[in-house]
Amino acid sequence: MKILYINSLYAPDIRGGAELSLKLLVEGMQSRGVDVAVLSMVEDGGLRSSTVDGVRVYRAGLKNRYWPYGTAQPPAYQRLLWHVKDRENRDMAAYVQEVLEEEQPDLVSCHNLAGWSIAVWDEIHVRGIPIVQVLHDLYLLCPNSNMYKNDTACKGICMECRLLRLHHQRKSAQVDAVVGISQSILQRFIDENYFANATTQVIHNTRQIPNPGPARTRVEGSPLRLGYLGTLSKIKGIEWLIETVKQLDFPVHLRIAGKGKETYQAYLASISEGYPNIEFMGYTKPSELFPEIDVLVVPSLWEEPLGMVAIEALGHHVPVVANKAGGLKETVKEGINGLFCDADRPGSLAGALERLFTNPTDYNRLSAQARESVAAILDKDRMLDAYQQVLEATLTKDTIKPHR
């Protein structure tokens, strides 16, 4: 069996959880005897190939107005024009055609398609090659991939998104199988009548996290060490977290690990000025942050497809306080491994943090239960087995039990 994986980026160019999960998946399938190759993008140039940790990787120069993964923020009109071309970018489809001719895969597994566009489906489908689409974000519903606008999570698809996604629902019928990394994200597409001819499956992503040893404990009155890990952007709720910490009346220290657009990073630094208990760490490996914190806060204002960072924290015995939305509801369990807050009630975040500070017994119980609560998700073979079943069933046209 030969599989071609298509994603916007691939290692070592890792910008988020999708790239980490894809590398683990690709290398895992190769270790099981599957012939794999990857097609991803780079900022400019033509098509080139290399080997990354034993995997054949093709990289195609993006043919659009700018590289969307830079630190600068293009003006609004440029962003709109970028998205207009990204509806169906035939220039990028030419790369797909070239790699399909070279590799002759039995099946193509599509992941994040920002930059590639749904034009890749046409190139694959016309050759009679089965397509598996893995949903890591909301790109196929929303050009911004997050359904978040005017500082509010969208309840439905706005007119602008409908225009920029005019043909996506119809063309999704070309997909043979669809995998959601959570039930939450899969359901969003089912509700919009996408993937009419596809079998459906939920497969949670995983991480390889060695057991870090005994769970941590807190004693009454000790400062509460908070952590944030991820992209620094408004949609991630980082401002909500900073403003909450500034108002707390008990000893707390917040470590913020991650990077964002330069102008936004400067703004966050300005609103944190004068608060030495708020520390910006820049890019930091999870394994370096988690031993230094008691609680991970995931205050995302949009519906995170899964919230892998929460799973990573729990795997390190770190309880999580999270906004109750999206895929986070499938991993964070109230009173078992963490607590929920509600973005519609901003004071709820302070309440959750205060509860953990004032009740060390409750905290110690959550910490003791954290890793076990995600033990199944951390099982790499569980994920690989599930994907292998999807691939084999799609190739043989067997029916996978739907998870609707």
Automatic annotation (TrEMBL):
All residue ranges annotated as the Glycosyltransferase subfamily 4-like N-terminal domain in the record: 16-205
Gene3D superfamilies according to UniProt: Glycogen Phosphorylase B (3.40.50.2000)
A Pfam family it matches: Glyco_trans_1_4
InterPro entries assigned to the protein according to its UniProt record, in alphabetical order: Glyco_trans_4-like_N
Keyword annotations: Transferase
MF GO annotations: glycosyltransferase activity
PANTHER family associated with the record: GLYCOSYLTRANSFERASE
Name of the protein: Glycosyltransferase
UniProt organism field: Echinicola soli
